[in-house]
Amino acid sequence: MENKALYILAGYDDKTEEHLAGIQNRLYDQGFVGVHTKDLPQHITMGSFPVEMEEELKAKVKDTALSVQPIDVTFNHVGIFQGGKVLFIAPDQSREMLDLKEKFGSSYNWTAHTTMLIDETEVLYKALPSVLDNFSAFEGKISYLHLYEFFPARHILTVKLGDDNDNKKI
User: What's the pLDDT at 167?
Assistant: First the structure.
């Protein structure tokens, strides 16, 4: 399939995952479904790559995970990207986060964010109060790197940051 690509995703510790998933699940419970891929861990996308790079990326993800410790983040932004189709929650950018992003491509014009909903602008405007009414700044931690192929979604690899074990697929 010509639209397939590989994506490296920065994932969260269990507590952060649960908190972000809870916000997204409240949207789902209220009937906001969106068109984004479901059943993925909450994440920040670090980069996309051609499918021919799978073996190279597996090695790069494993090597990176060995050299990078978990990253503390503070989530205090709710936003909608220009064009009005993506509702997200974003952490403050930090040097550690930008350094991680740079391992997989430039951080120029990149916004670290976790997507809550992708839909038409009118739908996002209706969903926004649900997120804002229950939102306050919170601390989290980036603890994993995931490698996925899309579309359809195929999980390839998950490794824990700072883990000196064999870092094999979880």
Answer: 47
> How many distinct structural domains can be found in the chain?
1
Number of DSSP helices (H) and strands (E) in the chain, helices first: 4, 7
On whether the CB atoms of residues 5 and 105 are closer than 8 A, the answer is no
* Distance set, CA 102 to CA 37, 77, 106, 108 (Å): 25, 22, 5, 9
Please indicate, yes or no, if residue 170 is contained in any of the structural domains. Answer: no
Nearest Cα residue to 147 out of 65, 34, 24, 35: 65
Output the six-digit token pair for 152. 């359809």
* Residues near 44 by beta carbon (within 8 Å), at least 6 away in sequence: 9, 10, 91, 97, 112, 113, 114, 142
Cβ-proximal residues to 128 (8 Å cutoff; 6+ apart), any chain: 78, 80, 87
| Owning domain of residue 123 | 5-160
pLDDT digits (tens, 9 = 90+) for 128-143: 999 999 899 999 999 9
Read off the pLDDT of each residue in 69-76 and give the average, rounded to a whole number. 98
Is 85 contained in some domain? Answer: yes
Helix (H, G, I), strand (E, B) or coil at 163: coil
